[in-house]
């Protein structure tokens, strides 16, 4: 039996079909537009490791954090030949994004106070590149205000196929730590037992230190350094270093003299061109007090000469309780990375640590 539709029924059926086609078209257009933005839904930034709460952030989450704006950042190409004199400027751009330390604050640090100077951060890109930063670099130094996870360049979104943002370090001289497509940040601490508190409780006095050992863990090479070897290096003067900390309060403002950490490491080996930015340096004393310094802040930062191994304090040689040398960082807001009685300097590849 043939079904005959009334005009009203034909109109209703046609309208229903048109509505379904229209909705399908809108859905397809939405999917196309969403995929074309470069910020696909699956793009996430993970923060894990020695944190209080792991994070799994989308670009939308990142954009909701306080934004930071850095104007006219010069990007200079990395050198592949250390003897080359010519430098190549790649671009000058303005960036907006979120400071790395604001991302880290979301996760919260597991290690605090005297344990925190031994912390370091690995920033991974989807292309396999890793840049390492020390805790002091991000939280004590003014470098922390220059390390940006950028999502805009010159007012336009930065396209990203897999990651969530581009890592920018405006105080670095060259662009070796500018990692695109950031996907993960790992927080770690060096495997050094801190015995300083127990020493103080037991009134234990460690013997004086007259030399230190520099060790490269990758190749197993070592070198002994004493006062005679570092005293002939060009001195750097820090006229007003503020010595204060969370645990022991304010100690005062002093002047220090000694060679840069960069020049002391130069006695051992050249970092190469470009330096391996997944490496860091660990300074430690026999009581376990220690501090990390990234290769980037030592060898590629405009502030690299501000990290010294002091041998004089207020114009006089260090006292026995300080050892023959101690670290002092002009840029740091606290004395947390001022390691006394340094007995060991280790060069470590962060991607090879557990």
Give the arrangement of secondary structure elements:
Blueprint: H1 7-36, E1 45-49, E2 55-57, H2 59-63, E3 68-76, E4 89-99, H3 100-107, E5 119-125, E6 130-134, H4 135-139, E7 147-153, E8 156-157, E9 166-169, E10 182-189, H5 196-202, E11 211-216, E12 221-226, H6 227-230, E13 235-245, E14 249-259, H7 261-268, E15 279-285, E16 290-294, H8 295-299, E17 307-310, E18 312-313, E19 316-317, E20 326-329, E21 342-349
Parallel strand pairs: 1-10, 11-21
Antiparallel strand pairs: 1-2, 3-4, 4-7, 5-6, 5-10, 7-8, 7-9, 11-12, 13-14, 14-18, 15-16, 15-21, 17-20, 18-19
Describe this structure in words.
This protein has 354 residues and is α+β, with helices and mostly antiparallel strands. The chain has 2 domains: 45-78 and 85-189, Sulfite Oxidase, Chain A, domain 2, CATH 3.90.420; 196-352, Oxidoreductase, molybdopterin-binding domain (Sulfite Oxidase, Chain A, domain 2), CATH 3.90.420. Helix content is 20%, strand content 36%. It contains 8 helices and 21 strands. It has a 5-stranded mixed β-sheet with strand order 2-1-10-5-6. Strands 3, 4, 7, 8 and 9 form a 5-stranded antiparallel β-sheet that branches. A 5-stranded mixed β-sheet has the order 12-11-21-15-16. A hairpin with a 4-residue loop joins strand 5 and strand 6. The chain is globular and about 90 Å long. 36% of the residues are buried. The model is unreliable at 36-40 (pLDDT under 50).
């Amino acid at each position: 039996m043939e079904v005959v539709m009334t005009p009203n029924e034909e109109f209703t059926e046609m309208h229903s079909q048109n509505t379904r086609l229209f909705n399908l078209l809108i859905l397809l257009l939405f999917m196309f537009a969403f995929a074309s933005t470069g910020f696909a839904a699956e793009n996430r930034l993970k923060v894990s490791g020695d944190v209080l709460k792991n994070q799994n952030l989308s670009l939308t989450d990142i954009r909701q954090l306080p934004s930071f704006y850095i104007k006219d950042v010069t990007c200079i190409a990395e050198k592949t030949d250390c003897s080359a004199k010519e430098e190549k400027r790649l671009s000058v751009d303005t960036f907006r994004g979120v400071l790395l330390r604001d991302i880290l604050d979301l996760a919260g640090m597991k290690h605090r106070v005297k344990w925190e100077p031994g912390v370091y951060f690995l920033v991974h890109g989807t292309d396999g590149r890793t840049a390492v930063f020390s805790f002091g670099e991000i939280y004590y130094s003014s470098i922390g205000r220059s390390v940006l996870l950028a999502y805009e360049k010159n007012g336009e979104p930065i396209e990203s196929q897999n990651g969530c943002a581009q890592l920018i370090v405006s105080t670095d001289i060259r662009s070796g730590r500018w990692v695109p497509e950031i996907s993960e940040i790992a927080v770690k601490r060096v495997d050094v037992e801190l015995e300083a508190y127990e020493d103080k409780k037991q009134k234990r006095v460690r013997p004086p230190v007259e030399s230190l050992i520099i060790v490269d863990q990758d190749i197993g090479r070592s070198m002994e350094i004493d006062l005679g070897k570092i005293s002939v290096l060009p001195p750097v003067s820090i006229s007003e270093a503020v010595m204060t900390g969370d645990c022991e309060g304010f100690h005062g403002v002093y002047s220090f003299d000694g060679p840069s950490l960069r020049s002391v490491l130069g006695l051992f080996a050249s970092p190469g061109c470009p330096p391996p930015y997944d490496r860091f340096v660990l300074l430690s004393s026999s009581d376990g007090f220690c501090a990390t310094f990234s290769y980037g802040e030592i060898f590629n930062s405009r502030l690299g000469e501000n990290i010294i191994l002091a041998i004089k304090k207020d114009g006089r040689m260090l006292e026995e309780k300080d050892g023959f040398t101690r670290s002092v960082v002009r840029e740091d807001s606290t004395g947390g990375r001022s390691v006394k009685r340094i007995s060991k300097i280790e060069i470590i590849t962060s991607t090879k640590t557990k």
